[in-house]
Amino acid sequence: MPPARLTPRLLRALAASHLLNRPLTFCAPPLTLPRLALRSSSSSTRWRTRQSSDTYTRAARTQGLKSRAAFKLLQLDAKHALFAPGQTVVDLGFAPGSWSQVAAEKARGGRVVGIDVIPAQPPAGVSTLQGNFLSGEVQEMMRGFLREGAWAGVGEGGDKDGEGGKVGGKTKGRKDERRRDAEMGRVVDVVLSDMSAPWEPQSGRWLRSVAEPYRRMMNTSGIGVRDHAGSMDLATAALAFAFDMLRAGGHFVVKFYQGAEDKVLERRLRVLFEKVYREKPESSRSESKEAFFVALRRSPDVPRKDVLDEEEDVWKEDEDE
Protein backbone atom coordinates (compact mmCIF):
# COMPACT_ATOMS: atom_id res chain seq x y z
CA MET A 1 0.00 0.00 0.00
CA PRO A 2 1.67 3.29 -1.04
CA PRO A 3 2.27 5.82 1.71
CA ALA A 4 -0.18 8.64 2.09
CA ARG A 5 0.80 11.75 0.23
CA LEU A 6 2.05 14.46 2.60
CA THR A 7 0.49 17.68 1.52
CA PRO A 8 1.88 21.05 2.67
CA ARG A 9 -1.13 21.45 4.94
CA LEU A 10 -0.57 18.06 6.57
CA LEU A 11 3.17 18.78 7.01
CA ARG A 12 2.42 22.04 8.80
CA ALA A 13 -0.02 20.23 11.07
CA LEU A 14 2.55 17.53 11.90
CA ALA A 15 5.19 20.15 12.68
CA ALA A 16 2.84 22.04 14.95
CA SER A 17 1.91 18.83 16.75
CA HIS A 18 5.59 17.95 17.32
CA LEU A 19 6.48 21.40 18.62
CA LEU A 20 3.50 21.48 21.00
CA ASN A 21 4.13 17.86 22.10
CA ARG A 22 0.53 16.83 21.70
CA PRO A 23 -1.19 14.25 19.53
CA LEU A 24 -2.54 15.23 16.19
CA THR A 25 -6.31 15.06 15.99
CA PHE A 26 -8.13 14.73 12.73
CA CYS A 27 -11.69 16.04 12.67
CA ALA A 28 -14.25 15.18 10.07
CA PRO A 29 -15.47 18.19 8.12
CA PRO A 30 -18.78 19.55 9.42
CA LEU A 31 -21.78 17.96 7.83
CA THR A 32 -23.80 20.58 6.06
CA LEU A 33 -27.48 19.77 6.26
CA PRO A 34 -29.88 21.28 3.80
CA ARG A 35 -32.21 23.82 5.37
CA LEU A 36 -35.67 22.40 5.64
CA ALA A 37 -38.47 24.87 5.10
CA LEU A 38 -41.34 24.18 7.48
CA ARG A 39 -44.28 24.38 5.15
CA SER A 40 -47.88 24.46 6.19
CA SER A 41 -50.33 22.09 4.64
CA SER A 42 -52.48 23.50 1.87
CA SER A 43 -55.56 23.28 4.11
CA SER A 44 -53.97 25.26 6.95
CA THR A 45 -52.70 27.84 4.45
CA ARG A 46 -56.21 28.23 3.08
CA TRP A 47 -57.54 28.52 6.63
CA ARG A 48 -55.07 31.28 7.52
CA THR A 49 -55.82 33.14 4.30
CA ARG A 50 -59.54 32.92 4.94
CA GLN A 51 -59.14 34.05 8.53
CA SER A 52 -57.00 37.04 7.62
CA SER A 53 -59.56 38.28 5.10
CA ASP A 54 -62.66 37.47 7.16
CA THR A 55 -64.67 40.47 8.31
CA TYR A 56 -65.93 38.84 11.51
CA THR A 57 -62.49 37.55 12.48
CA ARG A 58 -61.05 41.06 12.18
CA ALA A 59 -64.00 42.55 14.04
CA ALA A 60 -63.63 40.03 16.88
CA ARG A 61 -59.96 40.91 17.21
CA THR A 62 -60.55 44.66 17.31
CA GLN A 63 -63.46 44.35 19.77
CA GLY A 64 -61.59 42.08 22.17
CA LEU A 65 -63.82 39.05 21.58
CA LYS A 66 -62.46 35.54 22.04
CA SER A 67 -63.44 34.45 18.53
CA ARG A 68 -65.69 35.28 15.59
CA ALA A 69 -68.28 32.82 17.00
CA ALA A 70 -69.40 35.60 19.34
CA PHE A 71 -71.19 37.26 16.43
CA LYS A 72 -73.30 34.16 15.84
CA LEU A 73 -74.73 34.38 19.33
CA LEU A 74 -75.06 38.17 19.16
CA GLN A 75 -77.08 37.84 15.95
CA LEU A 76 -79.29 35.11 17.44
CA ASP A 77 -79.90 37.25 20.52
CA ALA A 78 -80.71 40.31 18.42
CA LYS A 79 -83.43 38.31 16.68
CA HIS A 80 -84.84 36.32 19.60
CA ALA A 81 -84.03 38.32 22.78
CA LEU A 82 -82.45 35.39 24.60
CA PHE A 83 -80.82 37.22 27.47
CA ALA A 84 -81.82 39.50 30.33
CA PRO A 85 -80.01 40.87 33.39
CA GLY A 86 -79.79 38.50 36.35
CA GLN A 87 -80.13 35.25 34.43
CA THR A 88 -78.28 32.01 35.06
CA VAL A 89 -76.70 30.86 31.80
CA VAL A 90 -74.87 27.59 31.05
CA ASP A 91 -72.48 27.34 28.09
CA LEU A 92 -71.73 23.75 27.05
CA GLY A 93 -68.49 23.53 25.07
CA PHE A 94 -67.50 27.06 26.08
CA ALA A 95 -63.84 27.16 24.86
CA PRO A 96 -62.40 29.52 23.78
CA GLY A 97 -65.08 31.53 25.56
CA SER A 98 -66.73 33.83 23.04
CA TRP A 99 -70.30 32.71 23.79
CA SER A 100 -69.69 32.93 27.54
CA GLN A 101 -68.24 36.39 26.95
CA VAL A 102 -71.46 37.50 25.24
CA ALA A 103 -73.65 35.87 27.91
CA ALA A 104 -71.75 37.56 30.75
CA GLU A 105 -72.27 40.94 29.09
CA LYS A 106 -75.96 40.38 28.32
CA ALA A 107 -76.95 38.73 31.63
CA ARG A 108 -75.20 41.19 33.94
CA GLY A 109 -75.76 40.57 37.61
CA GLY A 110 -76.49 36.92 36.91
CA ARG A 111 -74.35 33.82 36.68
CA VAL A 112 -72.60 32.31 33.65
CA VAL A 113 -71.11 28.82 33.94
CA GLY A 114 -69.16 27.11 31.17
CA ILE A 115 -67.84 23.59 30.70
CA ASP A 116 -65.38 22.18 28.17
CA VAL A 117 -62.87 19.36 27.91
CA ILE A 118 -60.29 21.86 26.64
CA PRO A 119 -58.50 23.94 29.28
CA ALA A 120 -59.22 27.59 28.53
CA GLN A 121 -59.01 30.89 30.38
CA PRO A 122 -62.59 31.89 31.22
CA PRO A 123 -63.80 35.38 30.34
CA ALA A 124 -64.29 37.87 33.16
CA GLY A 125 -67.32 37.04 35.28
CA VAL A 126 -67.61 33.44 34.06
CA SER A 127 -67.16 30.30 36.16
CA THR A 128 -65.89 27.25 34.30
CA LEU A 129 -65.35 23.54 34.75
CA GLN A 130 -62.90 21.50 32.68
CA GLY A 131 -64.26 18.05 31.99
CA ASN A 132 -66.03 15.79 29.53
CA PHE A 133 -69.69 16.82 29.50
CA LEU A 134 -70.71 13.29 28.48
CA SER A 135 -69.38 11.96 31.80
CA GLY A 136 -72.16 11.40 34.33
CA GLU A 137 -69.84 12.35 37.18
CA VAL A 138 -68.91 15.64 35.51
CA GLN A 139 -72.57 16.45 34.87
CA GLU A 140 -73.41 15.82 38.52
CA MET A 141 -70.66 18.23 39.57
CA MET A 142 -72.12 20.80 37.18
CA ARG A 143 -75.66 20.33 38.48
CA GLY A 144 -74.51 20.58 42.09
CA PHE A 145 -72.61 23.79 41.43
CA LEU A 146 -75.59 25.36 39.65
CA ARG A 147 -78.05 24.39 42.37
CA GLU A 148 -75.93 25.91 45.14
CA GLY A 149 -77.61 29.12 46.21
CA ALA A 150 -80.45 28.59 43.74
CA TRP A 151 -83.00 29.98 46.19
CA ALA A 152 -81.32 33.38 45.96
CA GLY A 153 -82.75 33.81 42.47
CA VAL A 154 -86.27 32.58 43.19
CA GLY A 155 -87.74 36.03 43.81
CA GLU A 156 -87.20 38.02 40.64
CA GLY A 157 -85.78 36.66 37.41
CA GLY A 158 -84.56 38.54 34.39
CA ASP A 159 -87.26 40.32 32.45
CA LYS A 160 -86.96 41.80 29.01
CA ASP A 161 -89.20 42.88 26.19
CA GLY A 162 -89.20 40.73 23.09
CA GLU A 163 -90.41 37.29 22.11
CA GLY A 164 -87.62 35.44 23.84
CA GLY A 165 -87.17 37.69 26.86
CA LYS A 166 -89.95 36.41 29.07
CA VAL A 167 -87.88 34.44 31.56
CA GLY A 168 -89.01 35.37 35.04
CA GLY A 169 -91.99 37.64 35.70
CA LYS A 170 -93.13 39.93 38.53
CA THR A 171 -96.50 38.39 39.23
CA LYS A 172 -97.11 36.13 42.19
CA GLY A 173 -97.91 33.24 39.88
CA ARG A 174 -94.57 33.58 38.14
CA LYS A 175 -92.74 33.67 41.47
CA ASP A 176 -94.55 30.53 42.54
CA GLU A 177 -93.53 28.85 39.31
CA ARG A 178 -89.89 29.76 39.86
CA ARG A 179 -90.10 28.47 43.41
CA ARG A 180 -91.47 25.17 42.16
CA ASP A 181 -88.72 24.99 39.54
CA ALA A 182 -86.09 25.55 42.23
CA GLU A 183 -87.55 22.75 44.32
CA MET A 184 -87.17 20.47 41.28
CA GLY A 185 -83.59 21.62 40.70
CA ARG A 186 -84.44 23.64 37.60
CA VAL A 187 -82.34 26.72 38.18
CA VAL A 188 -81.06 27.76 34.72
CA ASP A 189 -82.59 30.39 32.44
CA VAL A 190 -80.60 29.74 29.25
CA VAL A 191 -78.65 26.69 28.08
CA LEU A 192 -76.22 27.23 25.20
CA SER A 193 -74.53 24.34 23.43
CA ASP A 194 -71.71 25.00 20.99
CA MET A 195 -70.24 21.52 21.41
CA SER A 196 -68.62 19.77 18.45
CA ALA A 197 -68.19 16.06 17.80
CA PRO A 198 -64.70 14.57 18.32
CA TRP A 199 -63.07 11.57 16.71
CA GLU A 200 -60.06 9.47 17.58
CA PRO A 201 -56.55 10.48 16.45
CA GLN A 202 -55.32 8.25 13.64
CA SER A 203 -51.65 8.25 14.65
CA GLY A 204 -49.36 8.95 17.59
CA ARG A 205 -49.33 7.74 21.16
CA TRP A 206 -52.55 7.70 23.14
CA LEU A 207 -52.10 9.98 26.13
CA ARG A 208 -55.30 11.09 27.80
CA SER A 209 -53.89 14.48 28.75
CA VAL A 210 -53.09 15.12 25.09
CA ALA A 211 -55.74 13.12 23.27
CA GLU A 212 -58.81 14.35 25.10
CA PRO A 213 -58.21 18.05 24.36
CA TYR A 214 -57.19 17.06 20.84
CA ARG A 215 -60.48 15.29 20.31
CA ARG A 216 -62.47 18.33 21.42
CA MET A 217 -60.39 20.78 19.41
CA MET A 218 -60.95 18.98 16.11
CA ASN A 219 -64.29 20.62 15.40
CA THR A 220 -65.18 18.96 12.12
CA SER A 221 -63.76 16.02 10.23
CA GLY A 222 -64.79 17.22 6.80
CA ILE A 223 -66.92 14.09 6.49
CA GLY A 224 -70.52 15.27 6.48
CA VAL A 225 -72.14 12.07 7.75
CA ARG A 226 -69.70 11.76 10.66
CA ASP A 227 -70.06 15.41 11.67
CA HIS A 228 -73.86 15.25 11.46
CA ALA A 229 -74.17 12.05 13.51
CA GLY A 230 -71.76 13.29 16.15
CA SER A 231 -73.53 16.62 16.45
CA MET A 232 -76.89 14.89 16.89
CA ASP A 233 -75.52 12.83 19.80
CA LEU A 234 -74.13 15.92 21.50
CA ALA A 235 -77.28 17.94 20.84
CA THR A 236 -79.42 15.21 22.39
CA ALA A 237 -77.16 15.06 25.44
CA ALA A 238 -77.43 18.85 25.75
CA LEU A 239 -81.21 18.61 25.45
CA ALA A 240 -81.32 16.05 28.27
CA PHE A 241 -79.33 18.46 30.45
CA ALA A 242 -81.63 21.33 29.49
CA PHE A 243 -84.69 19.24 30.36
CA ASP A 244 -83.37 18.68 33.88
CA MET A 245 -82.00 22.18 34.52
CA LEU A 246 -84.07 24.75 32.60
CA ARG A 247 -86.72 26.72 34.43
CA ALA A 248 -90.18 27.07 32.92
CA GLY A 249 -89.90 29.75 30.25
CA GLY A 250 -86.17 29.11 29.77
CA HIS A 251 -84.40 29.02 26.42
CA PHE A 252 -82.13 26.55 24.66
CA VAL A 253 -79.70 27.24 21.79
CA VAL A 254 -77.87 24.30 20.24
CA LYS A 255 -75.45 24.01 17.33
CA PHE A 256 -75.76 21.07 14.95
CA TYR A 257 -74.60 19.96 11.53
CA GLN A 258 -77.46 19.57 9.11
CA GLY A 259 -78.51 16.13 7.92
CA ALA A 260 -81.26 13.54 7.91
CA GLU A 261 -81.56 13.22 11.70
CA ASP A 262 -81.96 16.88 12.58
CA LYS A 263 -85.73 16.68 12.03
CA VAL A 264 -85.95 14.17 14.88
CA LEU A 265 -84.21 16.63 17.19
CA GLU A 266 -86.48 19.42 15.98
CA ARG A 267 -89.60 17.36 16.81
CA ARG A 268 -88.30 16.73 20.33
CA LEU A 269 -87.67 20.41 20.82
CA ARG A 270 -91.17 21.30 19.68
CA VAL A 271 -92.62 19.05 22.37
CA LEU A 272 -90.73 20.84 25.15
CA PHE A 273 -90.67 24.46 23.94
CA GLU A 274 -93.35 26.88 22.78
CA LYS A 275 -91.37 28.09 19.76
CA VAL A 276 -88.51 26.48 17.84
CA TYR A 277 -86.53 28.17 15.06
CA ARG A 278 -83.91 26.77 12.70
CA GLU A 279 -81.29 29.49 12.20
CA LYS A 280 -78.10 30.09 10.25
CA PRO A 281 -76.72 33.48 11.32
CA GLU A 282 -75.10 35.76 8.79
CA SER A 283 -71.74 35.23 10.52
CA SER A 284 -71.92 31.45 9.98
CA ARG A 285 -69.88 30.56 6.91
CA SER A 286 -72.08 29.84 3.91
CA GLU A 287 -70.13 26.71 2.94
CA SER A 288 -70.52 25.19 6.41
CA LYS A 289 -73.28 22.70 7.29
CA GLU A 290 -73.45 24.36 10.70
CA ALA A 291 -76.85 25.58 11.88
CA PHE A 292 -78.62 26.31 15.17
CA PHE A 293 -81.91 25.48 16.81
CA VAL A 294 -83.25 28.30 18.95
CA ALA A 295 -85.90 26.90 21.31
CA LEU A 296 -87.84 29.48 23.30
CA ARG A 297 -89.89 29.25 26.51
CA ARG A 298 -89.70 25.80 28.02
CA SER A 299 -93.11 24.36 28.88
CA PRO A 300 -93.36 23.43 32.58
CA ASP A 301 -95.25 20.14 32.65
CA VAL A 302 -94.01 18.04 29.73
CA PRO A 303 -93.11 14.45 30.79
CA ARG A 304 -89.52 13.46 30.20
CA LYS A 305 -90.50 10.35 28.24
CA ASP A 306 -92.29 12.52 25.66
CA VAL A 307 -89.03 14.31 24.87
CA LEU A 308 -86.25 11.85 25.68
CA ASP A 309 -87.72 8.36 25.42
CA GLU A 310 -84.76 7.02 23.42
CA GLU A 311 -82.27 8.90 25.57
CA GLU A 312 -83.71 7.34 28.72
CA ASP A 313 -83.27 3.87 27.22
CA VAL A 314 -79.63 4.62 26.42
CA TRP A 315 -78.87 5.83 29.94
CA LYS A 316 -80.75 2.87 31.44
CA GLU A 317 -78.64 0.42 29.41
CA ASP A 318 -75.47 2.14 30.61
CA GLU A 319 -76.60 1.90 34.23
CA ASP A 320 -77.50 -1.79 33.87
CA GLU A 321 -74.02 -2.55 32.59
Automatic annotation (TrEMBL):
The active site is at K255. GO terms for cellular component: mitochondrion. Residues 153-180 are annotated as: Disordered. One of its GO terms (molecular function) is rRNA (uridine-2'-O-)-methyltransferase activity. Keywords: Methyltransferase, rRNA processing, S-adenosyl-L-methionine, Transferase. Signal peptide: none annotated. This is rRNA methyltransferase 2, mitochondrial. It comes from Trichodelitschia bisporula.
